[in-house]
Design goal:
By secondary structure, this protein is of the alpha+beta class. Strand 3 and strand 4 form a beta hairpin. The protein is globular. The model has no long low-confidence stretch (mean pLDDT 89).
Length: 116
């Protein structure tokens, strides 16, 4: 994999941090790293609060946070997932999200393998 070590590490950290922040007291988080034909796939899944369907198309926008009324118990500025998507895009990769409210969320990143 050709990539910026610092930014890719920050992507992983950000996804793990979100999984921890948006999970109940005893987080259940799974990490999967798979090599396929031309890609390296990395996923982070949790059994946290999930993201309502109506907001899934907005979560990668800068400063967007899923509305929770007037109270935000979880700190953040709505920059993390925008940063993650930007880094993945700069590496010619793709990011997908699958989430169900009150069930959990899975982010999957696919990055092209280095051609030798």
């Amino acid at each position: 994999l050709d990539g910026d070590r610092i930014h890719l590490t920050s992507v992983i950290y950000n996804l793990l941090d979100n999984a921890l922040k948006y999970s109940p007291d005893h987080p259940d988080i799974n990490l999967i790293l798979k090599e396929e034909n031309n890609t390296i796939n990395f996923s982070v899944s949790d059994k946290g609060i999930g993201i309502p369907d109506t907001y899934l198309d907005k979560i990668f926008e800068q400063f967007f946070r899923v509305p929770t009324g007037d109270q935000h118990d979880i700190k953040g500025h709505g920059l993390g997932l925008s940063y993650v998507a930007g880094v993945v895009q700069k590496h010619n990769g793709k990011i997908n999200v699958d989430s169900t409210k009150n069930i959990g969320t899975q982010f999957t990143i696919s990055l092209p393998k280095r051609h030798e």
